[in-house]
Amino acid sequence: MPPLAAVRASNARFSPPTPPVAIFVGGTSGIGQGTAQAFARHTRGAAHIILVGRNRAAAAALFATFPRCATSKYEFVPCDASLLRNVAATTAGLLARLPRVNYLVLTCGALPNAWQVLRGARAPTAEGIPEALFAVTYYARAQFARDLLPLLRAARAAGEDAAVLTVLAAGHGGPVDFADMGMEGPWSVRTLRPTVITYMDMMVESLAALAPEVTFTHICPGIVSTPLFPGWVRPLADLLLTSIDDCGEFMLHALLMSRGGGAMRMGEHADDVGLQGYFGGDEVRERVWAHTTEVIERALAKTETVVPSESVGGQ
């Protein structure tokens, strides 16, 4: 487990020969924000950074903290990832105008209403996914990574880094119920969270099989003091938990050390978690990925109105 000082020093040595292209999905707050800030800081602004999310004002405020130089390019691309057709529109726009992507960081997620959880109620999406929490946290991430594979592979073909980091809870998975792959039965965050974690493990393994030259990492950030904690809890959380800034350094370290291709599972300090909390295998991987692609394609076949994505930002 590398200490924070060593991680910061390692990140500070990051010096790519050309400005890298990095996309942060969910990068306007929390762990995504901390990772994006660390990336901007250690590249000294010599990068093309794209934040994908819903909060334009938060993105603008974040860009104002980034260092700037002659090659700085910062963009915000709005996308409501609870609808997979919005994700498809966003990735289509990125594919049409970007020559390559070096780094893709996935932290998008959602929190269910507390009363909803207590009642075991669901918040289905317009595309038929039974719970919006799963749509954003898992299916949208899988689609972003799958759709952007050509740009990641283009980076590797040019001799540059290409890595995907998805932040959830590697090492804390649970068994998959093949009889309820869509997680449509009775649920609670406590019972279904381990299943989604295993889905994420299978996602990085499946994507690594599709693009073996790209590195895909599922990481657990630990418990981080983010804006999700209510105001009266924040002072205690700031005292006892990992800060967003420190977590961002560890997440960036994991992203930058992810070279050589393949699938990786890491803990909160960018340490290999081995087979801890692992419930995968060939059959699980094949069935989870088949289910994932089926859900995505079924959602894309729906006819609900797509919320358009646009790019704003500047040098």
Automatic annotation (TrEMBL):
The keyword Oxidoreductase applies. Signal peptide: none annotated. The keyword Membrane does not apply. Gene3D superfamilies: NAD(P)-binding Rossmann-like Domain. Keywords: Oxidoreductase. It comes from the Eukaryota. This is NAD(P)-binding protein. It comes from Rhodofomes roseus. The lineage of its organism: Eukaryota, Fungi, Dikarya, Basidiomycota, Agaricomycotina.
